[in-house]
Write a sequence for this structure.
């Protein structure tokens, strides 16, 4: 490929090509595009390679208005649309403008013959009678113009004769009659001239009106073509995504790495279909407005057959993003991948309106994927009210992740707000880069009536505590009146000085992209009189793309391929593991009545255990002893030396106990 500063080149003034920066929007700023000027048309592409198959837009120069802007800038206006372009240098800008002006002049001269030579394709096909009617009216006006032209010639000649005769006058008596004749002929000439002017104006007005309509039709065709090109591009991307999913599918090949191990372990690819039980959520929740969701007695009908510990573990679905990040030399590029990972954890939630089971105190969940993906994960429920879990993941591919999350949820009447409190920590072994961030608010809408749907909103600030790099992500809440794409996420990656290096954009249910900033400037349009920063970037690169859902997912709680395996029974896990929870297992099997009965038994047993602990604490206080608070089995409360945060972190021992199959410390919670 050519260098980024390849200048415009070509054999003649009407055949130019080269890189220019084209203004897109305030988020992406100027984007580099490959422009080709040929045959009176200026076309542009994302890359030179795209010239063979995908044109991003075409500007007809015959009707374009060319205007010089600030340094290295110029503006093309055509069909009511403006294109703001920028060259690498002032000299290159002048060469482009000169070439465009020459091409416009050539195109204007060729306009009567352009119908057969343009490659814009046919115009929008208005009714044939409408076109014939317009042509007939224009022909009629042209005939009027010809008639006026003949009359002007006739009366003009007569007026000229009268003026000549006036010069030859001898007697004064003749003069009065001659002047009268001259005056009459001058009046006729003026009337005929006015008629000619009016006929010309009618012709021009009519021609302009039809021209505008045809221009609109042409613009509509261009927009339709552009939309079609975008659709084709999106289909191509989806095709690539499906191909990738097919390559990675455990059912389609026998690779000895990655998903090949997944096949060898025989992970399941489906669960029983969800029964079609109807139950009115409002009838249960109408008396619970303002209460914490964890304190509302909910039947399993509104659950999904996974616990909150398993949902927390599901954040690891796109762990390969962290594997890639671990190999990054640049901490800023690494930050982009960490940001994409933080967004990817929401991708499975878009259709997941079922509530996960609230884990019992002391419940655990392990996920050992060392063979397939290089990591193993352990979660433990460390508090029941408020519900809180501690999570620890270590990867052989260069990273460790840990978090303590407390779920604060409120029922507001029409919707439920779920606010995960606490921080997620991620540390890369080689560089020591230590990233910390928290989750956004999830909202479940249409509790009273209509179809349940989920939205994510709020900001995520990711901080690298080693060098103070920062990323600010914004999850835009859904708005019926917004023109933005739904589920939009935007962000910027900055160094410790606050200088922006990357722009991030995408949606939390589909993909994220990053674009490297090569120049920033202040433009107008900011709120409260503030200037808005405009970033000029290189073309965006794909960071993350969501995997397609498995076949029949709509009947399996919309579970992803990973989620389908999370509750699969495994030998050797702790007796407190979520896979062994009986009500959850019954619900997965479709036995919801039995699951509800078992759920009540488990919750009553947990209430009795809590009262027993409270009674022991009260007794200790009466005897002047220090009351012992509940202590998790696998996690200790510690203060992080870098962030200064106090939280429960993994103290070790779980995997060793599993190797020995010694679970004597575990409580009998099920």
């Amino acid at each position: 490929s050519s260098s980024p500063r390849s200048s415009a080149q070509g054999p003649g003034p009407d055949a130019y090509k080269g890189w220019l920066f084209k203004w897109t929007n305030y988020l992406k700023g100027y984007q580099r595009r490959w422009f080709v000027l040929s045959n009176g048309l200026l076309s542009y592409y994302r890359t030179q390679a795209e010239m063979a198959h995908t044109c991003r837009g075409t500007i007809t120069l015959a009707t374009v208005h060319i205007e010089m802007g600030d340094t290295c800038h110029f503006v093309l206006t055509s069909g009511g649309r403006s294109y703001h372009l920028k060259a690498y240098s002032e000299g290159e800008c002048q060469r482009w403008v000169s070439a465009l002006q020459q091409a416009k002049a050539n195109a204007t001269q060729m306009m009567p013959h352009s119908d057969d030579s343009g490659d814009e394709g046919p115009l929008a096909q208005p009714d044939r009678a409408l076109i014939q009617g317009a042509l007939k009216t224009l022909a009629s006006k042209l005939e009027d113009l010809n008639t006026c032209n003949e009359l002007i010639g006739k009366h003009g000649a007569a007026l000229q004769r009268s003026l000549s005769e006036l010069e030859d006058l001898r007697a004064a008596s003749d003069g009065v009659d001659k002047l009268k004749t001259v005056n009459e002929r001058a009046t006729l000439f003026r009337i005929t001239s006015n008629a000619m002017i009016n006929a010309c104006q009618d012709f021009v007005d009519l021609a302009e009106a039809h021209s505008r309509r045809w221009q609109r039709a042409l613009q509509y065709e261009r927009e339709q073509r552009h939309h079609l090109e975008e659709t084709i591009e999106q289909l191509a991307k989806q095709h690539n995504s499906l191909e990738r999913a097919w390559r990675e599918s455990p059912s389609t090949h026998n690779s000895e790495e990655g998903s090949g191990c997944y096949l060898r372990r025989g992970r399941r690819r489906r669960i029983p279909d969800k029964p079609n039980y109807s139950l009115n959520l409002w009838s249960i929740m109408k008396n619970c407005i303002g209460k914490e969701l964890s304190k509302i007695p909910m039947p399993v009908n509104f659950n999904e057959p996974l616990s909150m510990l398993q949902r927390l573990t599901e954040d690891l679905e796109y762990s390969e993003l962290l594997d890639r990040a671990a190999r990054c030399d640049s901490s800023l590029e690494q930050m982009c991948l960490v940001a994409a990972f933080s967004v990817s954890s929401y991708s499975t939630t878009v259709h997941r309106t079922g509530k996960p089971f609230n884990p019992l105190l002391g419940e655990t969940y392990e996920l050992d994927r060392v063979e397939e993906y290089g990591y193993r994960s352990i979660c433990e429920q460390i508090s029941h009210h408020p519900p809180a879990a501690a999570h620890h993941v270590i990867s052989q591919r260069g990273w460790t992740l840990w978090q303590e999350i407390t779920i604060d949820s409120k029922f507001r009447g029409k919707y439920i707000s779920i606010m995960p409190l606490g921080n997620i920590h991620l540390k890369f072994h080689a560089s020591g880069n230590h990233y910390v961030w928290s989750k956004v608010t999830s909202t479940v809408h249409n509790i009273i009536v209509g179809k349940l749907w989920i939205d994510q909103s709020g900001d995520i600030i990711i901080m690298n505590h080693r060098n103070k790099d920062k990323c600010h992500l914004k999850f835009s809440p859904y708005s019926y009146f917004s023109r933005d794409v739904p589920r939009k996420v935007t962000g910027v990656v900055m160094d410790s000085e606050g200088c922006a290096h990357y722009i991030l954009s995408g949606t939390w249910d589909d993909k994220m992209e990053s674009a490297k900033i090569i120049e920033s400037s202040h433009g107008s349009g900011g709120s409260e009189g503030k200037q808005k920063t405009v970033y000029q970037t290189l073309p965006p690169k794909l960071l993350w793309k969501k995997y397609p859902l498995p076949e029949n997912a709509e009947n399996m709680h919309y579970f992803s391929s990973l989620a389908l395996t999370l509750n699969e029974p495994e030998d050797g896990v702790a007796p407190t593991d979520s896979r062994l929870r009986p009500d959850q297992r019954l619900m997965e099997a479709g036995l919801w009545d039995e699951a509800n009965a078992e759920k009540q038994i488990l919750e009553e047993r947990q209430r009795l255990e809590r009262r027993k602990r409270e009674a022991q604490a009260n007794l200790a206080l009466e005897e002047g002893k220090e009351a012992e608070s509940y202590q998790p089995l696998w996690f200790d409360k510690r203060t992080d030396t870098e962030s200064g945060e106090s939280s429960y972190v993994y103290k070790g021992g779980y995997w060793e106990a599993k190797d020995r199959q010694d679970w004597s410390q575990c409580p009998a919670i099920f």
In short: The chain is about 35% helix and 25% strand.
